[in-house]
Amino acid sequence: MGLALDVMSAAEREQIARELLTECKPARKAGKLSANCPFHSEGTPGNAFFYNPEEDYGYCFSCGQGGDLVSIFNAVTGRVPDDPEGFKEFVARYCKEGAEKLRGQISRREAQGWTPKKAELPPASWGDKALEFVVQANAELMNDEERLAQLLRWGITEGAVRELGIGWNDETTFRKFTHWGLPYEENDKGNERCIMLPRGFVFPGFRRGVPVRIHIRCEDPDMPDLPRYFQIMGSSNVLYLFGERKASVWVVVETVRDAMLLWQELSPLGVGSMAVGGVSVRPDTDAERILRSAEFIMVALDNDDAGARNSWHFEPWNERSRFSWCQRYAQASRWLVPAGIGKDAGDLPGAGVSVLDWFMAGVPAHIRRRLLRRQEEIRGGQNRG
Ligand SMILES: [Zn+2]
């Protein structure tokens, strides 16, 4: 996949993986190693995480996280997957032989710079199943007063639930890969792999009316290992986009739930919102096109170290090869949720802070004036109506 694939042999990668991972042993499927997951702590370890030294790729079927050997190294040493400091330490520790080759690779990457990847959407058969699931979960939520009240405490109204297709999945269930239009795959016991649909709130992202990515906010007390926001298998890593494509002002946040809240509050002013759904996810070509032509981009990634690192980076040695929001887009600037309130926009409603006020305070004055005029027009229209 990445660096380790370019400068090492599969045998070297396997040896390093065995050093880094715990309970590491050959998996049933030839060529793979199974181990405890380095990306989350498991209540009942084993059988979920696999690393393939040949392809330099690891994946956890329990938490849905994965990456190459460098990402695994970063996770084991307590870093985010693409931490550049971890990359450097990995090189210093393991790449002595390949140092020459590596220098070549770094300068090649610098020459190329960062380029967005084309949006790879899930197969249409996955989209059909996902749509069925989303429609059913939405109907379930619309009839559940208690869950609607919970969403409202997060600031999300029934109107947004209806318009955006937010749902509730009442029971953690498993569906076979092939039933969701994915290629057949076997688990370590020789059974067909399943897509897990955890109990919780269902937040779908659509492109051209078809779900392409779904996160579930897990609410199953029997599944304490799951990350808070679980991405359903087969989802595409495209950004969640809400609002008019032609909007000139955009807010970028981490979770799809926050992007939906922002859509609810800001789309009347013509402001778009997008969620990366994972702090190190980068814009696809569609999102890049929108961002390139935007007049102003508010980067509101979480108010934490990972959010800061992805907003800005300061490593002169790989200045041009890495992506950061504020360096990629000249019209982007980082806007934090004050630490006393929380770490993301989703924390604002609970603290009694208006999302609109928070947003307006972070917008350049000339754009704020325009948005305020627009707001006045809307109010005027409502009063006349
Ligand atoms: Zn895991």
UniProtKB/TrEMBL annotation:
Gene Ontology molecular function terms on file: DNA binding; DNA-directed RNA polymerase activity; zinc ion binding
Which biological process terms from the Gene Ontology are attached to this UniProt entry? DNA replication
Per the UniProt record, one Pfam family is Zn_ribbon_DnaG
Residue ranges of the Zinc finger CHC2-type domain? Answer: 25-75
Give the protein name, as stated in the record: CHC2 zinc finger
> Which species is listed as the source?
Desulfobaculum bizertense DSM 18034
Its ancestry begins with:
Bacteria, Pseudomonadati, Thermodesulfobacteriota, Desulfovibrionia, Desulfovibrionales
